[in-house]
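cron nightly-structures :: item 1 of 1
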Amino acid sequence: MLITDLLRQNAASRGQDIAIVEINPKAAQDRVVSWRDYEESESYPDSAGRREMTWKYLDDQANRVANFCLSRGIGHGSKAAMLMMNALEWFPIYFGILRSGAMVVPLSFRNTKDEVRDSLTLTGTDAIFFGPEFTGIIRDIEGETPSLGTHVFVGPGVPKDASFAQNYRQSVDSHSSLNPGIDIAPDDDAAIYFTSGTMGKPKAILQTHASILSVCLTEQRNHGQTRDDVFLCMAPLFHTGSMMHWLGSLISAGGAVLLREPKPESILKAVSDEGVTIAFMLVPWAQDVLQALEGGKLKLSDYRLGQWRLMHIGAQPVPVELISRWKEYFPEQQYDTNYGLSEAMGPGCVHLGVMNTHKIGAIGKPGEGWLADIVDDDGKPVPQGKIGELIVSGPSVMKCYYNDEEATAAALRDGWLFTGDMGYVDPDGFIFLVDRKKDIIISGGENIYPIQIEDHIRKLGQVLDVAVIGANHKRLGEVPIAIVSIKPDCDCDEEEIMAHCEELPRYKRPRRCIFGDVPRNPTGKIEKPRLRAMYSDVLSN
């Protein structure tokens, strides 16, 4: 059994039911486009405020994508990347690539041009499906990735500056909607997702079909999805967390709503209008909803929310105070925390459980089929209550870091995945995280690697040294703060540093620059703990 088989089963048993609805608040709200409009149009009506797709159409279109890939020589052993914003087309492309026997390679839509090029080169990607927002990036790197022979533009027409690409609809719809019947085994390679290591360099994570299927089972068992549930999906689909949560809807044949541009009003409106019963949130979105309610900008009485049975959060530490405030507005609603990482195919290896709200603050206990432990630097279990590194073992642990034997050997040991997260177990068996072994800053659910910002700031000639650390932020969890040491006899102010950092993606830009010494240990490593102690008053505000 593969997830592509689950899609085929849903198409056979519930073919005319709506599988996914896309809500685009920025578009004209009075335009509703059904699956039939796809069959009658040569281009996707992206200006529609609401688009929907049935299980049968999703399955048929996935077959067309698969047959298109095969016609281009893309099958077993090949890789096809996706560089797209959240959109309805994501799902048939994802399933079509898998059904062809090729590996799907989702790329972050926040990647820079260099990061996209390096990711494609590392994996030896053969094809890429890209959205209109990324035409410039793909144009600029076209010819710099030798293995990349097929470019597919997912949008109406093909822009003049992307003349090297094929139009998605015109290319795909000319192929058969019948399943190509490619023989795919559960242990075959299925997907390569990206993360970054301690040095900030992206690592490619290789997963199998069996691993992805196991996530379906874990998600459904954790949250009890049924055919009557409607799942609200808002996080980026290139994240394992977002896509893997949706797999609970796939296995239960329940409906889903893909909400673009989530804002407090659009979130509550989507829940109300579409009958949403389960929503996966990030901390900033929950914070925004609460602020809108507490400030009187939104009123719960204006929406139909009684069916909303579960809200769960992952991707970053969840403040206890946040959930306490949430329960004041939604006292009957269930809540869950999900812990996971891309190396474990996303969420579910540890989760709190809806019955354990008295333990909010913990990440929970091992999920079904999973084991977890807290160990010391030698990999030996530590006593209860003592801080150590969290390690996990289960059915969706990665196969390896692609083309990186050294990193794989460090992360996978004797069947255990060493997460790099530090924590402890309380007397009731609940796991609490206290810090990250790696100096990752998590801002709004996105990982920020300080060395990338440090390397960028060091390009300024006046800079002698720099260190980036995380400061607390009520909405985003953390934001980066730069400690900068200037060379003697050089002048540089905060405005110049900030202007230089505008070249970085917005979420990576430091929120503040502090001028001072950057302490290093005898081996030359920055003493981040010492820095945090030196600036504790700044970081806690």
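cron nightly-structures :: done
Residues 30-45 have pLDDT under 50 and may be disordered.
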